Structure formats: structure tokens, C-alpha cells
Structure prediction request, 202 residues.
Amino acid sequence: MTENCVYIVDDDASVRDSLSLMLRFRGLISREFDSAEAFLAAWRPDWRGCLLLDLRMSGMDGLALQQALAGRGSRLPIIFITGHGGIAQARAAFKDGAVDFLEKPIDHDALFAALAEALRRDTERRLADDRRAELNARMARLTERERQVLDRVVAGRQNREIAAELDISPRTVEVFKARMMEKMQARSVPELVKLVLEAAGD
Prediction:
């Protein structure tokens, strides 16, 4: 499922049903799972949206699922819900990136505020991922010599320094630099530096 979805993981059927109904009334798509194990078995890297996760369940609990997903590289934002929350569990959840930690009975306004934040984070992350992929594709189109020039320009070298390091003329450096700037779609050296940092995720 690649569209935004709220994945509900709770071993209480009544909670799953009430949450899914509430989300549907707000125009949100949901998918329900009765255990952490069932969610983990179904999870795919391209899933978008967020996870509404019960803290205490029979079998694998919510914190264990959070750890397991992190181990698989999942970055789905997680909102914990619990009827038996504690400071230690909340601290552990937030330390590992949880968006919120809500106690049952759930305050609807707090829930939808948390969902809005979680979905915003997921959208922004995916846009950033797409941007990095685009920039890395531009860099992949550079020739070896153009990449050598790029690395030195970003490091602050002047044309004459680059020429001496690569054993080519300053004029040739200018030619490679112009081609590299065009392929990177950079209008200035500061913009080029910014693009390279974006591509690296810095």
C-alpha cells in the first residue's frame, strides 16, 4: 500500500474497530492488525503514512515492534496508545522516535493532532528522500573527471589549484567545471555546495 494510511496495531478488536471507524469519518484510510507479529509479517518498505500502535499486547509488545521495524529500516512515524502507560515506556518510545504517547481513553483532539503531525513528518521525509535520489542521479551522470572537479570545487579549491592537482590546464578545469555545473543544475558555487550536502543527507 503506497498511499497514506494509518496502520492500527492493537490486540483488542473493539479498539481497532472504533479507531478505524473514527478515522474513516475523518477521511483517513486505515488498515488493522491484531498483533505486532501480523504487522511485521505484512510490512513493506514502501508503505506510507503512520503507525498507531498499542503498547501492551500479548506476544510482541509495541516497544519490541518499534525496535524490530527500526532494524528493518522502517521510518514509519509511530504513535503509541496505551491503557497502562508508564514514564519509562514513554521515555523509551520517544527516545526511538515516537511522535506521541497517548493514554486510553484517547482524547480525539490529541489523537488527530498527533496523526496530522505523523503524516506531515512522513510526507516531508519522503519528499526529502525523492530530492536526494534526484540529486544523486545528477551526480551519477558526471564523468570521472567532472566528479574530480566537483569534489575539489566543493572543498574550496580555486581553478589553478585544481589544475595543478589534476595535472591539467586552468582552461580545461573551466571547461569541466562548466559541464559539471550544468549537469548539477547549479547556478553558483554556493548553490553547488548546498546541492552536494543535500545529496549526502546533511
In short: Residues 108-140 form the longest helix (33 residues). The first strand starts at residue 4 and ends at 9. The mean pLDDT is 91.
